[in-house]
Model the fold of this input.
Amino acid sequence: MTPQDYDYIRKLLRERSGLVLSADKQYLVESRLVPVARKAGHASLAELVATLKSMPLSPLTNTVVEAMTTNESFFFRDKLPFDHFRDVIIPAMMAARAQEKHIRIWCAAAATGQEPYSLAMILRDIGIALKQWRIEILATDICSTALEKARSGLYSQFEVQRGLSIQMLIKYFTAVGDLWQISSDIRSMVTYRHFNLLQDFSSFGAFDIVFCRNVLIYFDHATKTSVLNRIGRAMRADGYLLLGAAETVVGLTDAFKPLPQHRGLYVPAPAPAPTKVLNLAAAS
Done:
């Protein structure tokens, strides 16, 4: 791949997905896009790039973007956010929403579904206390193939061993050949939707809880700020935002503030009080 072709791919990825690649990641692009080029019938990456340039809105562009996205995920990843969800967030939401009995959760960049399914299992384990509640879990991702896997709820032995206890496996999964499938009850709790975080999501409505973990690290400063500000506008005033261990709102937005003693957990910041403008005409 020539430096010019690599620069074109970097620009394409940044514009279409927000993904920022440094100058030393050419090897990664080549390793992931060579199979894409072959499948599309191209003899080289140069031919692939030439096609992308001639047809920038073709399905091939989406295929390239999806091939470059990272879909790393596993059940109860990093544990602490899920402890926060079970021990801090849900009790607070049950008190705050006692009358309406309705909670909306958004898992942005949900990859192959382990995160939203982990939340669904926690909610099921809470049991009768949430029996009369309506809880929506929306899970979105830019990668169609990841979403297909998530909807199927089928995972390999290696995947279920990553973060999932044997008790959870027995309780919520069924062996299907060499794979494990999560129960239809848990799958029914999650709605999956193909979505790009660079797009407008005001039509989603207001959320009580947003998980946006391990995706901001791939964006530049301006894109991180834009995404966080728009999430802020899509959340209720007493909602909760959870970010990845290497992510923060500090220096990016004033829409959220950290919740003391709870790493990775943020709440919407109060709107600043309106500035009182002195009416000089009236004063005179």
About this structure: The chain has a mean pLDDT of 90. The beta strands are 102-107, 134-141, 154-156, 173-176, 179-182, 190-194, 207-212, 235-243, 256-258, 265-268. The chain has two domains: 3-68, 80-268.
